[in-house]
Write a structure and sequence with these properties.
Layout lengths: L1 H5 L5 H11 L3 H20 L9 H18 L5 H52 L5 E2 L3 H7 L18 E11 L2 E10 L2 E9 L11 E3 L2 E7 L3 E7 L3 H14 L3
Antiparallel strand pairs: 1-2, 2-3, 3-4, 4-7, 5-6, 6-7
Length: 251
Amino acid sequence: MLSALADGELSTAQLSTVNEHLAQCPSCTSNALSQALLKTATAKAGQRYTLPPDLQTRLAGLAKQEREMAASTRHHAETKSWGTGVLGWGVAFALLLLSIGAGFWQRSAMMSSQLVSEVCDQHIATLAANTPPQVLSSDRHTVKPWFQGKLPFSFNLPENLPADTTLNGANLTYLHNRPVAQLLYSLGKHRVSVFVQQRSSTMPVKGVARERSGFHVDGFVTDDLEALVVSDADSARLSDLTNRIRMAQAK
């Protein structure tokens, strides 16, 4: 029934019955939220490599311009005609490069936005599940070694945390099919998820400072790693924690 609920396939009577049950069952409510988030993430993943919608039109226009240019220069001398043709191809090639470059940056921006959405969804799912982390410890010397053999990279945890901040544990999770460490902190009464992954040029994180669904999203990049930090805590306090984790990578 929960799968049918996520897919919007329940009848009015079935929906009423399910909603009545969800109002009294935290476990099924958490399960329903997780399935809804998974459905959203899957839909977004299917759009990761969508080309700009006008790319084919632009390329067809360039080809048409080149054909018209070639036809208009046939009556010229062979040398002049050859030179004009080379110039035309040069202009077309330059425009094609600009088109590809624009598409690349558009795709990078879209992927960055999708990454922010995905980490927010995972943070919300963690809050909703309300289950213990895979490694439950406030000791950084316990949390870090737990990932050995599970991740193709290593990272450091800060020795000194901001006031009223506690390390609660960590999970092994995935972002865009890549293994990621999800570090869990408490910042006062606020929960924080820190997603640390191996650096990738296809997943731009540098300069990320956004808000999504009421959550602040911060991040940093090092030579080998990139991280996204999500919480509804005050942005200044969240930035302090983010900077301490970033500085710990230099040790």
